Amino acid sequence: MDRIVYDLYGRDERLRFSPYCWRVHLSMAHKGLAYRTEPWRFQQKEKLAFADHDKVPVLVDGEKVVTDSFEIMRYLDATYAEAPLLGDGLACQRALLFKLFVERSVSPALLRIVVMDLLAAIHPDDRDYFRRTREAAIGMRLEELHDPVQGREQLKKALVPVNALLEQSPFLDGQAPAGTDYLLFGSFMWAHVVSREVLVDDATPVARWFEKMLAVHDGMAGRAPTVRDV
Amino acid sequence: MDRIVYDLYGRDERLRFSPYCWRVHLSMAHKGLAYRTEPWRFQQKEKLAFADHDKVPVLVDGEKVVTDSFEIMRYLDATYAEAPLLGDGLACQRALLFKLFVERSVSPALLRIVVMDLLAAIHPDDRDYFRRTREAAIGMRLEELHDPVQGREQLKKALVPVNALLEQSPFLDGQAPAGTDYLLFGSFMWAHVVSREVLVDDATPVARWFEKMLAVHDGMAGRAPTVRDV
User: Fold this and answer.
1) Are B89 and A174 inside 8 Å of each other by CB?
2) What's the superkingdom here (chains A, B) (predicted)?
């Protein structure tokens, strides 16, 4: 059966940095599912018309087409029950809250640290599009948002409870990684692929967790090319 | 069977404001368990010697004695399986992360808003004890910590993901309240019982959620006396 994840790429086709796509890559590995990626750029909207959607990730699983990273994780749990990602009921609802925490509290702090590096990692043909859409969304120039020192301070505050949990637990979801680990990892991997900036102090639990996350599932994420390589 | 929750009280025996005890009150109601409270003050350590512990809440459930609010919630799930509070596996682990979010990101912001009112709500015989222990823990005078404007700003930032979830879900745990609702509610109720300060903007989802939480379980929390009453 053909399994495809449509995956954002940047100035080099090997640079894959979408936080939402990284959620899905790790989730596919968690389920032990083989797949190939289809490289995609921001403005290739027609290429996703079959999915009635304009963003990645898009998962094609045989006859089935699923959009949105969280919906893809839900779909994977519903279709491949072994090794839950989000789980059911209370577990899934709490993963949804954590997803919002990642998107509203963690990613904005990361963006302040890496935004100019992110722009440089994007395909040259997409940079104007990226700048225009993002500046409209945040209401300021990317150069004004850019503030690594403030971004790190904001990130450190947001991560206080995450660091507290990782003091007592090897992964966010317990003894092994699962859905909430992939939700947070996606955002860290996004920043890591596009930028050499220090995100968090090496001595913090979340820094050690990120290293472990690069190694899980046969080092899938750790092997991915970053701006250090290409 | 005798069921007792040892419960902190303040300058009036009817003022019950411990955030950890409020978690337990709502959890007992969630399980439909009748109980009585035993009023307790900070320095009545000998009164808890039977539990080999020095803080409330302490639950006495017949022959069983359980300390620590989260452990009590776990115990209630293990003993009274109907209507899970924390749930199992991923659900419980994610509730633990949310507990740390409440304790490390939400409660410190609330404390900056209400700390002087809290001091005034404490029993006169306990105020020196409270000041001494808290000032040692936070490394500053309570008067320096007190900053309702900054506290509200800090609280608003911390609650961004909570408000986003409550835009799409009536309670944190879904269609009905459960463990994570009680974890957050405990801290809001603590501030609400001791202070008239505005905590969050009335128009925010979390403000509407707090009103709903005062009404659940036959208005158990909404009936509790606050500094508005005594």
Assistant:
1) yes
2) Bacteria
Q: How far apart are CA B152 and CA B112, in angstroms?
A: 8
Q: Which domains does chain A possess?
A: 3-79 (3.40.30.10), 89-219 (1.20.1050.10)
Measured distance CA(B49)–CA(B167) in Å, rounded: 45
Is the Cβ of A187 closer than 8 Å to some Cβ of chain B?
Answer: no
Amino acid identity at B45: K
- Read off the pLDDT of residues A48-79 as tens digits, 9 standing for 90 and up: 999 999 999 999 999 999 999 999 999 999 99
Residue B101: closest CA among chain A residues belongs to which residue? A161
> Alpha carbon of B221 to those of A89, B71, B81, B197: distances in Å?
26, 21, 23, 18
Average pLDDT of the residues in B140-169: 98
The token pair that represents A93 in the structure block: 């609802």
Min Cα distance B90 → chain A (Å) is 6
Burial of residue A80 (CB within 10 Å: 0-12, 13-18, 19+) is: middle
Measure the CA–CA gap between B206 and B188, rounded to whole angstroms.
Answer: 10
Q: What is the 8-class DSSP label of residue B105?
A: I
A115-163: pLDDT as tens digits: 999 999 999 999 999 999 999 999 999 999 999 999 999 999 999 999 9
User: Chain B contact for A89, CB < 8 A?
Assistant: yes
What are the start-end ranges of the H helices in chain B?
Answer: 19-30, 69-79, 89-101, 107-121, 127-138, 142-145, 148-158, 160-166, 179-194, 205-219
**CB contact (8 A) between residue B97 and residue A98:** yes
Strand order in the sheet with B36-40: B36-40, B3-8, B58-61, B64-67
Q: What is the pLDDT of residue B155?
A: 98
Tell me which chain B residues have a C-beta less than 8 angstroms from the C-beta of A161: 97, 100-101, 103-105
Distance of CA B55 to the CA centre of its chain: 14
Are residues B89 and A87, on separate chains, in Cβ contact within 8 Å? yes
Is-contact B44 B76, C-beta < 8 A? no
Quote the CA–CA distance of B102 and B141 in Å, as a whole number. 23
Closest by CA position to B228, among listed B196, B188, B199, B197 = B196
Q: 47-76 in B: which are within 8 Å (CB) of A?
A: none
- Provide ipTM, 2 decimals: 0.97
d(C-alpha A4, C-alpha A39), whole Å: 10
